[in-house]
Each structure stands twice: as structure tokens, then as C-alpha cells.
Design goal:
The chain has 254 residues and is of the alpha/beta class. The protein has one domain: Rossmann fold (3-Layer(aba) Sandwich). Helix content is 50%, strand content 16%. It is built from 10 helices and 9 strands. Strand 1, helix 1 and strand 2 form a beta-alpha-beta unit. Helix 4 packs parallel to helix 6. The relative contact order is 0.13. Bound molecules: NADP nicotinamide-adenine-dinucleotide phosphate. The site of NADP nicotinamide-adenine-dinucleotide phosphate has 29 residues, from helix 1 and helix 7.
Length: 254
């Protein structure tokens, strides 16, 4: 897809991958709509790129259906349409066995799964009617297994990934493109908190270059870096006992 003159929504643009996506996409002749909860960061980013492209930012919580609908209506009022929706907002909340609670699960699913669902619900009718549009959902290579301490996160990303996969097939006849972005470890404020070793960690500018190239090529799935992608494929077909053995050692160390 040629990104020139497109109207592109980025959720979770106040930090990390979303922020860098806005920076790099501002080099294209496109309109950018940025959303996140921290409006002051969006305003600062907008000021940085406003000489290069038309940019508007909205404070919005993707896990709040009404908040998403309000933004959608404002965007349609301002731009008339969205061409590409990059649904990137996400959180990584630890899953604690000693304090297992549904509240944490609801928060993670609210952002990482329903944050996509609410936007897709609003976008689809017009995309299908006009036989156009692209939905880019950011999931994770961590969707491949239930890693210890990351149960809600892995489950939410797997749920989002399966949803995108099923939509991709169903929407083919309407010419609506669905892309799944599955990053490995990328250096952002989300991973800066991690105290464990992150294999094949890559810089955010490199990650975003890969994502943009994948969108331009309309790849179904954009997964990177290669070594992490291969490792997760190996983990997926590994016997359960071996997976448990490897990751039990990791749990004992903590
Ligand atoms: N970094 C990695 O290694 C990695 C790996 C695989 C997948 N991913 C995925 O990539 C995406 C971006 O992650 P990142 O590394 O860039 O993390 P990040 O730096 O923490 O950024 C997360 C973004 O999501 C937004 N967000 C969080 N909760 C939100 C909510 N309720 N409503 C609206 N926006 C919300 C945050 O903005 P506010 O706090 O201002 O709302 C922020 O802009 C996430 O979906 C993440 O799961 C990241």
C-alpha cells in the first residue's frame, strides 16, 4: 500500500513503538491521528512533526468503548475517513500466582484485546461498504506459549492474534486488509522495566522500519526479529515436558 495521502490512526502513540511509528510516518505525505491516555506526550509529539504532516491527537482509553467511539466520531468529522488503523496500544501486566485476580486479567484483556475490538467494530462497516481499508493489529511473538509470569499478556495477545487471523480470511472478499504485527523484544519503556535477559532485543527505530516496510508490502504477518521468530516456532513444536523443564528453571532463579 502506498502510504502517501493516507489518513492513518495510531493508538498508543505516546510512547515506544507507537511514538516511533508517528515519527517515521510523518516523513510520508499522510494525515496522522494519534491517541493515548497521556495527552501531554501526544501534544509534544504533534508539535515535533506538525511541520511535516497534518496531525491531530486525542486523549483516549482504548479499553473504554465510549472513549473510542467519541474519538472515532471526531476523526470522521475532521478527516472524513480513516484508511489505515494501527491498533498498537498495549500493556504488559505481570500475572502473579500468589495474588491471582480477575481484575488484572480484565485490565490486560481490556487494552490488548478489547482495545482492538472496539476500534474494529467502528471501522468495519465503512471499510466493507467501500471495499477498502487496512487494520494493523500489534500483538506479540509471546502469543505462542503461556510464559510464566505473563499469563494474562500471552493470553490477550493470542486472543488478539486469533481474532485478526479470522478477520483476515473473512474480509478478503471485501478488499479489507488485515495485518498482524508480532514483535519480539523491542527496546521501549515497556521492556525497560524488565529485569530478565531479553534475547535479540532490537532498537525501536529498526522495529518500526520493519513494520512500515511490511505495511507497504501488505504482508499478512510482520514478525521480527528473525531469530526470535524462529525460536518461538521451535518453542511451539517442542514437547510440553521440555518447555516446562526450561521455564521451571527460570522460575526457580527468580
Ligand atoms: N516492546 C516490546 O518488546 C514489545 C514486544 C511485543 C509486542 N509489543 C507490543 O507493542 C505495543 C507497543 O508497546 P511498546 O513497547 O511501545 O510499549 P510502551 O512504550 O509501554 O507503549 C504503550 C503505549 O500504549 C498506550 N496505552 C496503554 N494503555 C492504554 C490504554 N488503556 N488506552 C490507550 N492507550 C494505552 C500507552 O499510552 P498511555 O499510557 O499514554 O495511554 C503507550 O503509548 C504493545 O501492544 C505491546 O504489547 C511490544
Amino acid at each position: 500500500m502506498n502510504l502517501n495521502n493516507k489518513t492513518i490512526l495510531i493508538t498508543g502513540a505516546s510512547s515506544g513503538i507507537g511514538y516511533e511509528l508517528a515519527l517515521q510516518l510523518s516523513e510520508y505525505n499522510c494525515n496522522l491521528i494519534l491517541t493515548a491516555r497521556r495527552k501531554e506526550l501526544l501534544d509534544e509529539l504533534s508539535r515535533r512533526i506538525s511541520s511535516k504532516c497534518k496531525v491531530i491527537s486525542y486523549q483516549s482509553d482504548v479499553s473504554d468503548k465510549t472513549s473510542v467511539k467519541n474519538v472515532y466520531e471526531k476523526v470522521i468529522g475532521e478527516f472524513g475517513k480513516i484508511d489505515i488503523a494501527i491498533l498498537n496500544a498495549g500493556i504488559d501486566q505481570k500475572t502473579r500466582i500468589t495474588n491471582f485476580n480477575s481484575g488484572d486479567a480484565e485490565i490486560t484483556m481490556g487494552v490488548n484485546f478489547f482495545g482492538l475490538v472496539y476500534w474494529i467494530e467502528l471501522l468495519l462497516p465503512e471499510f466493507m461498504r467501500e471495499k477498502r481499508g487496512m487494520i494493523v493489529g500489534v500483538t506479540s511473538l509471546a502469543d505462542v506459549k503461556g510464559f510464566p509470569g505473563s499469563g494474562y499478556y500471552c493470553a490477550s495477545k493470542a486472543a488478539a492474534g486469533h481474532l485478526l487471523e479470522s478477520l483476515r480470511i473473512g474480509l478478503k472478499k471485501y478488499n479489507v486488509k488485515v495485518i498482524t504485527v508480532k514483535p519480539g523484544f523491542v527496546k521501549t519503556p515497556m521492556t525497560d522495566k524488565n529485569e530478565f535477559h531479553m534475547p535479540f532485543l532490537i532498537d525501536v527505530d529498526k522495529a518500526v522500519k520493519i513494520i512500515i516496510r511490511g505495511i507497504e508490502k501488505e504482508k499478512r504477518v510482520i514478525e521480527f526479529p528473525l531469530m526470535t521468530s524462529l525460536s518461538t516456532k521451535l518453542l511451539k513444536c517442542m514437547p510440553y515436558s521440555m518447555f516446562e523443564f526450561i521455564f521451571s528453571k527460570d522460575v526457580k532463579k527468580k
